[in-house]
Amino acid sequence: MKKKVYFKTFGCRTNLYDSQVMMSSLQDYEITENEEEADAIVINSCTVTNGADTHVRSYISHVEKNNTQAKLFLTGCGAHTKGESLLKENRIHGVFGQSEKQKIDTMLAKEKPFYEPGDLNHIDDMVVDEFVGKSRAFIKIQEGCNFRCSYCIIPYVRGDARSMDESRILEQITKLAANGFGEFILTGTNVGSYGQDTKTSLAKLMKRMSQVRGVRRIRLGSVEPIQITDEFKEILDEPWMEKHMHIALQHTSPKMLKLMNRRNVYKQDKELFELLAEKGYAIGTDFITGHPGESEALWSEAMLNAVELPLTHIHAFTYSKRDGTPSATMKPEVNGKVAKARLHELQTMIDKKNYEFRTAFKGELDVLIESYKDGLYHGLDQHFNKIIVDSKEDLVGNWINIKKYEVKKDCNYARI
Ligand code: SF4
Fold first, then answer.
1. What is the pTM of this model?
2. Domain 136-360: CATH superfamily, name plus number
3. Distance set, CA 307 to CA 129, 153, 165, 300, 348 (Å)
4. How close is the Cα of 117 to the center of ligand 1, in Å?
């Protein structure tokens, strides 16, 4: 009988993808959904903030209480920051970097404790052709980041930006589309930098993807404002572009953007967002509140600016210190409660804008139904807005066009 392995994934989509690659590469072991019966547990960790490291540590303590037989393995970003110390403390059996994930069988079979951080310049050549239980497929197109935002540890643990081979990506998309996937979400550490090292571009890749039979909608993970180039602007009206873009601003005060060592400039961000809004796009952004130096005055300015932007979605975080980054030593720090209150203020404002956007939109919704919960279907439309559908038919995995629906505060609602 094969030994059983349980995968515990923390963090972002890139980690989800990496776990999927490990699962697809596994041959000598069986995957289990039950961590208590596992002989091995692979922790695919995140290290974005000091808090993320704490989550990994508490998960290890939790396993130590509930399953004393399992050998623990650590991979993901945390392998580089916390791997050595956890190994020294004898809390894990082995540490391996992302570059080793396709060798998962070899890693799990190692008898002696080991530390193999791997190669930060590695790039996958793996083709994952099915994402179990999901109707949308996440495709990793690049790895690493050349930016050096002051608060961020990611470039140090994921390396510089490098792109996956285009023919591999298209092969992956072709297989997935043949398996019934219609929506593709392009992910990576810094998706918009795709192609810079291989003399191509994100826009070219997306155009080629759209020509694959079965590809219906393409969505991008988070991109940086400066990556929306003139070439990219030319594909904005294509029917296969999801009418939603997530563009990371992180802040809207020019002074804060400088402190955070960001490459975007508020004035240009505003022009870009207005162009996208004119073309009917819903626009989301990432935002960090409470970064050191965010005074009351700078916050007020940021809020005034954010109100001016045609935003519909937000992924806001309170600043969380990450040792080893320039921001970790910046002063004055912002009190955690103040940072939370600012996040709440921003979130409330964007929720209102989202409701206004949905109310003002008079067209049809192109919806992919993703799940069924408590007697209702849940899906996302072309603007990345949630819709709940009441229906007698089994709709999971279906694309439906909805003409009549009700706009409620939290989401849209339809009966079909
Ligand atoms: S763009 Fe900035 S925040 Fe994003 S991964 Fe790169 S350094 Fe980190």
1. 0.83
2. tm_1862 like domain (3.80.30.20)
3. 42, 30, 40, 11, 11
4. 21
CA of 155 to the centre of ligand 1 (A): 7
Per DSSP, the three-state class of 393 is coil
Mean pLDDT, the chain, whole residue set = 92
Helix/strand/coil percentages in the chain, nearest 5: 35, 25, 40
Distance CA 103, CA 28 (A): 11
- pLDDT above 60 (res 133): no
262 alpha carbon – ligand 1 mean position (Å): 9
Q: Which atom of ligand 1 is nearest to the CA of 152?
A: 8
Q: What are phi and psi of 407, to 5 degrees?
A: -95, 110
Residue with tokens 């003409």: 403
Q: For 312-329, what is each residue's pLDDT tens digit?
A: 999 999 999 988 999 999
41 C-beta closer than 6 A to ligand 1: no
The band of 92, judged by pLDDT with boundaries at 50, 70 and 90, is: very high
Q: Is 155 in the pocket of ligand 1 (CB under 6 A)?
A: yes
> Domain map of the chain by residue range?
3-116, 136-360, 365-415
Atom of ligand 1 nearest to the CA of 224: 1
